[in-house]
Amino acid sequence: xxxxxxxxxxxxxxxxxxxxxxxxxxxxxxxxxxxxxxxxxxxxxxxxxxxxxxxxxxxxxxxxxxxxxxxxxxxxxxxxxxxxxxxxxxxxxxxxxxxxxxxxxxxxxxxxxxxxxxxxxxxxxxxxxxxxxxxxxxxxxxxxxxxxxxxxxxxxxxxxxxxxxxxxxxxxxxxxxxxxxxxxxxxxxxxxxxxxxxxxxxxxxxxxxxxxxxxxxxxxxxxxxxxxxxxxxxxxxxxxxxxxxxxxxxxxxxxxxxxxxxxxxxxxxxxxxxxxxxxxxxxxxxxxxxxxxxxxxxxxxxxxxxxxxxxxxxxxxxxxxxxxxxxxxxxxxxxxxxxxxxxxxxxxxxxxxxxxxxxxxxxxxxxxxxxxxxxxxxxxxxxxxxxxxxxxxxxxxxxxxxxxxxxxxxxxxxxxxx
Length: 418
Known about the structure:
The protein has 418 residues and is mostly helical. It has helices at residues 3-7, 10-68, 73-96, 101-130, 133-164, 167-185, 205-218, 220-249, 254-277, 282-299, 309-337, 343-354, 361-372, 374-394. The two termini are 16 Å apart.
């Protein structure tokens, strides 16, 4: 299936253009924030920013998943774009009147975490609604490539923005791009959600989430994948805290930080395009997934051992290539293995499971860097990430990324979405 077969679908194309714009703005803002807070507040303050985000995000992600299984996903994504644009304006006003930058950014992280609890499951569930199953891998590859390319360019712009213009400039870009995204979403036709009664879902939160939870428990590959990344992301979050301080240790500046942040998404975009244009067969998806994610984790050690910035960029590019392929594998498998009426809730369970311990990991990373040093902290983070992938490599049923038919969840041929 060629990538062009997905791109010619009007609503999918509009969705990708809008989401790409918003991801560019958000990457610009987050890169600028990351450097500024690390510069003025140190590792602990930088860790608090990520912790604030996930403390707001995780309690709401289940509600967001249930909402996008009830309401057309376009409406949810559009509402969140508008809310995030208004929020960016509020943050700008807070900085103008002189409120402390770190306090404003912690507040901004809380708002962003809460809003993405709704926008993330809506966006993830919307792609399979806009294309048919045969086009899903190509569409996922294109979508992942476009948003990672946007993160790449946005990261570079964010580094330049904080170096030459300041944090408010990055916030204005963030505001504008969410308005652009909203304008594209407004042009997309709504895809109705099947009525809950037709699928045997109950009408209350507990019953609906239990149904999605039962589905996750019925699929060994999905359950273990969520549990593995629950642990993996602890190490990943600790590693993320260390990045600006690796830059500072080598006497580099915000532009270097932005370039580093831009390089991984460039690789991810290339990897996503490759995996989208050459879909990986279901029979080997899991094996490739767990082996390559382990390799990506080991590469993190090289960051504290490489004094040459070009070497850092080369490592980041390779990691990005791996991440791009991994994202297409996982998102495609969710898209072609989960029923439409469950997709939002399953995506939410995936997110909350994978990120469950992240609110505590950034603070832990900040204290570890202050207490035992940067290099020791990176080795601990990598050990956690590598250990989490072992079970997926050694147990065949866990790396078999294929839908398992059960009495409660039989495999029913799906109808094309478009």
